[in-house]
Design goal:
The chain is mainly alpha-helical.
Length: 167
Amino acid sequence: MFVDELRGFLLRDIAGLERELALYPDDSSVWRKVAGLPNPGGTLVLHLSGSLQYFLGAVLANTGYVRNRDAEFSRRDVARLELRKELEAARRGVLAAFEQLTEERLEQTFPARITDAELSTRLTLLQLVTHVAYHLGQLDYHRRTVTGSPESADTLAAPSAPEFGLD
């Protein structure tokens, strides 16, 4: 079912974000600025976790999460442990949203706007999946540039059975 597939891709990409974080040698390298790249890795993680917690957790699952988008881009020197906690909260928001999401709900207008246009929940979820993938790629380039390591975090691996709820 389309809903399960979207959930699988989001959970796969959250796991990819976690693997990318683990490949940095220390907390400070996550925040190292790189000429030509707009954001350090830590900013990307804060932004994605905030976005998922808000649009999926708060908007769809009523988790009560209050987003501070400005802080996602202004906070610095957040330890990887704290960044992993934010990603875990994002995972919980994704799971909470998808527990109650139905095929019928996909065709309804999403209750918050991500873009200037009003979109269905289906298109909004696709927008979120591509948004996460876009920034995950940026995080990968940041990490490889900062560390000098070409090591892959296997971020494009197909979603596994547990991500599709088949474990």
